[in-house]
Amino acid sequence: MKSSVSAVLLVFPVWLALCGPAQAASAAPVTDQEAAHLLNRLAFGPRPGDIASLQQMGADAYIAQQLHPENIPLPDTLQQKLAQLSILSASPGTVLYQYQKALKDARDDSEESKKHRRELVGSIMEQTAAARLWRALESPRQLEEVMVDFWFNHFNVYEAKGFDRALIASYERDAIRPYVFGHFRDLLGATARHPAMLFYLDNWLSTAADFHANPRQRGAQGQKGKSAGLNENYARELMELHTLGVDGGYTQNDVTELARMLTGWTFDPRSMVSRNQNFIFDMARHDDGSKQWLGQTIRADGRNEGEHALDVLAMHPATAHHLSFQLAQYFVADQPPTALVERLAQRYLDTQGDIRAVLDTLFHSPEFRSPANYGSKYKTPYQFTLSALRATGTPVQNIRPVLGTLAQLGMPLYGSQTPDGYKNTETAWLNPDALSRRINFATALGGGYLPLLQSLENGQAAGMKRIEKNTEKQMEKISMEKTPPRQLMPPPDPVQLQTALGPLLTPVTLNVIHQQPAALRAALMLGSPDFMQH
User: Looking at residues 447-470, what average pLDDT do you find?
Assistant: First the structure.
């Protein structure tokens, strides 16, 4: 997408004006500010009426409610939309079989088979994304959706890597979502044993150094039939990213020894299809020698070696500190207070890694509740896009413009190629080009120029590259038009939008915006510096 002042329909100059003077503190009551703060951190921003509803409920009651999403009913409209998505109930083996068959059929190079492959892969991707986005936009269980975002990013897998195209939906459904408020050890184990993680970080290929495949094993599908030798990818990321942290006190030898302990942790695509068996421990591929790991001697014990490693890692003090820092950074500040991180780490250890208990401590901490931290975080593209759609109350049927926008903003859904996932700090996302793209989106949404109300057409699934390209063309067309393009949906009412955002827009910002034509005001609110923060 080209970046230029003309590309933002007069919005960028006004944005510069908003950035000029020092912004005054909001005149809204403290209770309004706290309500907005909670909705910005425990949710993806307020929808119309949310601030008033939270004030009526009370902050502590709202926190308690969000920490127990099982007690919050889902709206019928959302349940009906989710019921349309067959992938939510399909086994990973079924989806993987369909995916592999489409790839195999496409080898005949006929246009019909290629079209079928594109439609199947596109349908898998769009259904998976629709489930995530519709929940994030419409579910009253907002903290649950926030934690799905947090933990998926923590245990990131990349959608576009081979089998993972077919496995992402199951990974989020089966390995992430059920455990976001549970004990960390259960979450760690679920991700470690899921075929999406085993495939993404190549542990499914890892074998003892002296492994020699027999004829049956050599007949295994693809790479696995040819694999022999230790692969350290998962063991390294398990300690560096998932548990101990980069400064967690382990050595390269510990990585190698952990990789040996995890040999044989694999899956078989054929068993997934025929027996719904998503994880296999293959003793023939396992290194059954003794290991020296983190100062311990690990005796040969098959699969239990890996389970023991997860037990140790889950309750290691370095893990408690690493996770506590990440949670505090996500919910409080880019540089979270040391005292808060230490209290959270102690709470983690005291409760055997109870995530809900740690979050409860965090949300009731003086650091989290301090007005000094209101609006101190810069929204990621995911948070920005969702919060804009929620604030306007836009009913999203067609998710393609949303997916295209996320890709254009540098954060495609399920699209982080590296295991460390996406950053959530200001330095990662605040730059002129990215800001221009955000304002383009604010202009398109604020003007009613996005086809969000159109239903997804059956059999017309588009690939991610095509979605991104179409969105880029659409945004360029909108931004370069001398006269506003044809509206595709009713534009947001700027008065209602201002009411929904409440104290999130400062008097200085509102004064500048109210000097502009009414047709531009919604876009200016969504593209303002105030709205970029949360």
Answer: 68
